[in-house]
Amino acid sequence: MTYIKPLATVALALLAALPALAQDGPQKLPGTKLTVGFHLINAEVASTPEQRAIGLMHRPTMPANDGMLFVFERPGQQCFWMKNTLLPLSIAFLDDDGTVVNIEEMKPQTLDSHCSAKPVRFARDEPGLVQQARDQAGREDQRRAVRQQVVDQPA
Q: N vs C: which end of the chain shows fewer Cβ within 10 Å?
């Protein structure tokens, strides 16, 4: 009889976890607006282990400028995969001040691990981050070239 209570507790805990394990549709989480350069992003916030585990799974489409912000309790090496995720996504791993540590491109429905280059508390998942970063770098290169032309012009 001493084993019944612990077993019952474990069974109840497993039953309580079944809805998250059996997730077959996308979750919809409360969101926030993020400004990244010139981009405004509507980001759902995943802050619990269950929310982070489901992430953007089971979404057949995603509007432009939508994504998810993953918030962790403390800095650590954060790793993500794309199980049951139908869309190609990019993930940016962020320092506490919002500085991008690294960006990874992720293919849909794979178990490949994509990890932060150093301990972080935040990650931002959305389609097209890598292209946005390239576009931003291109704009910076263009600005530098224009400034250099202005400086190099004879008076």
A: C
Domain extent, residue 43, equals 22-146
Measured distance between the N- and C-terminal CA atoms of the chain, rounded to whole angstroms = 95
Question: Could you tell me how many residues make up the chain?
Answer: 155
In a domain, 4, yes or no: no
Residue 30 inside a domain? The answer is yes
| β-bridge pairing 79-80 and 66-76 | unpaired
At 75 the pLDDT is 96
Residue 27 CA to residue 56 CA, distance in Å, equals: 7
For 119-133, the DSSP string reads -EEEEEEETTHHHHH
pTM of the model: 0.69
Task: Give yes or no for a contact between 43 and 30, defined as CB atoms under 8 angstroms apart.
Answer: no
Q: What is the rounded (10 degree) CA torsion for 37, 39, 43, 49?
A: -40
Spatial distance between the Cα atoms of 109 and 112, rounded to a whole number of angstroms = 9
Residue 10 lies in a domain: no
